[in-house]
Amino acid sequence: MVVLLGLMWFLMIRPQQRKMQQQRALLQALEPGQEVLTAGGIFGTITDVDIEEVVLQIAPDVEVRVDKRAIASVVEAEEVEDEPEEPAEEAVT
Asked: CB 3.0–4.6 Å: which of 1, 14, 44, 88 could bond 58 by disulfide?
């Protein structure tokens, strides 16, 4: 019986605890400028972070308040190949 309980703990409970710990770490590391995906499937860029909620910009001039627990993941920015930037000219004073 003890072996069965130990096996159940390793196969079911422990992975769930790790997943919860990773989600807590993700929520604590949120900062403005990150692109995130909510549990409802909305992509947005964080503009402000509070203790229990974040403000997401989902379109130009459209911001929504979302509970932190609704953030499902941080979206990794895809590298876009742009033309090389030209150096800015220095201002003469």
From this structure: 44
